[in-house]
Every structure is written in structure tokens, then in C-alpha cells.
Amino acid sequence: MILLKDGVKYNLYSYTSEEELGDMIVEHCKEIFGKNSLYFDPQSMKTRAGFETRSDGLIVSLDESKWYILEVELAEHSLHKHVVPQITKFHIAYRQPETRKKIADTLFHLIKDDPNKTMLLRAFKIEDAYKHLTELIDSKPIIAIVIDQKAPDLDDICASLPFPTQVREFKTFTRENVGLGVHIHQFEPFIGPPPEVPKSLLKILAVTRLIREGTPHTKAFQLVSEQFNVGQPAIRDACTRRLGLSTKQFLKLVQDKPRLTTFLQEKYPDCKSLIDERLT
Question: Which of 72, 38, 79, 78 minimizes the C-alpha distance to 56?
């Protein structure tokens, strides 16, 4: 593969090692994970947290209140030998409360020791950084695999991992007869535009609001069906069958806001902020 710009050829570059690719990922971390992301180097984590990890770093996204475990890989290496054992080992440790506490403690102290990271948290008006980190680490991390090219068995490997996993290719092209001195990187960022809100969730939230305001559920189904210009069975289906609930179970859940919030956020993890906002 080549890129052609103004008659100048850029050839696909072959990374000499995972370390070389990893250095490029760290250099462009904020372009890959968002400008309001915090990168934590794996050696610092190992030294302070006291647990073994072969991950290539941890990233905290303040924009999305998510954290990532970074795995940098070359497709020519055995991903089964590299990724699966490491993540499985981490999962076993992560299930222990003391491990999650160690991670939160470590990130907190690394932020305190770094003025730039401290300023970024202040810009987000996070007054209690330790509480924020503790709550964040209690939510499952996303495994961020950055690889030079997709491997044939990568999808099967991702499906077998105990955490949600996202994969991005990171390619580098160098100017012909010049080399790395003039280069172009090609990649898709992990953080992009907000995902489109599923219509089923909007229907559920609309019905929930009406019921909590005192509208009988049959009337709520009717009003929301008119709002979305669909039949009442579609509204009932969104609130019951799609959620794995009977009508009785749904109505009981609506009256328990904390349980309802948790339940919907587990069903629609990309819409946590919207659910919090609408159920307040």
C-alpha cells in the first residue's frame, strides 16, 4: 500500500518492534484517546501498585469517564500467547477489591505528582480526585488493542476476553527515499462523536417519565406511541420484551429509581450520562 501526495510517494512502514509502535502510540496518545485523556506508563503502575502487568499502559478518558488497558501488538506475533494470558491474569486480580484499590491509589498519587494531570482534573472541576478514580476503576476497563494490521483470528480473541475490547489499526507511511524523518500516521481514534441514542431507550425514558409523574401506564404507552408515531405494541415491546421484563416487572422497576438507573445503564452502556440526566 502507498499514499500519493502532490506526486510524492509514501510507503507503508514496517515497525521494527512492538516497542517502536508503542512509542508512537504514547507520542500520539491524545490524538488517539482524546485531548482530555491521561496516560500512565506501565512501569510506574507496576512499581507503585505492586502487581505484575504486561499491559502497555493505562489511559483514563475524562471526556467519557472510561479507562482503558492498552495492548500494543504486531500481527506477526502470536496474539493468543501475548494478549489472552495477560488479560486473563489481570481479570483474576481485578476481581479482588484490594487490586482495584491499589490501582486507584496509584493513579491518584501519579496525578498528584504531575502538575499537568492535576490541572486537567481541575479543568473538569473534579474536586475529589480520589473518589472519582475509585468509582471509575470499579467500572470495567476497556481493552484497547492497537495493532499494525488486523490478524485473521483477532475477532475470536476479542470475543474470548473478559472485558469489553476495541481494536484500532495504526499504520505509518514514510516518504520515499527519506524514511521516518517524514511520515504520516493513519488511525481511527478510540473517542469519536457521541453515539446515536437508540430509539428504544428514548421510548423507555419517555414512558418512565410519564409514569413517574402519575400517568397510568396504559395511557403512557398511548401518549408515547403518538409521540414516536408508532403503534402501542412497539412501545410495550421496548419497555418489556426487549428488556427481558414482564409489564408487572417493568412497572415495579420504574418505581425504584436507583435500580432502574443501574438496569438501563447496563443495557445501554454508551448512554449512561443521558440516563442519569433523564432519570434525575
Answer: 72
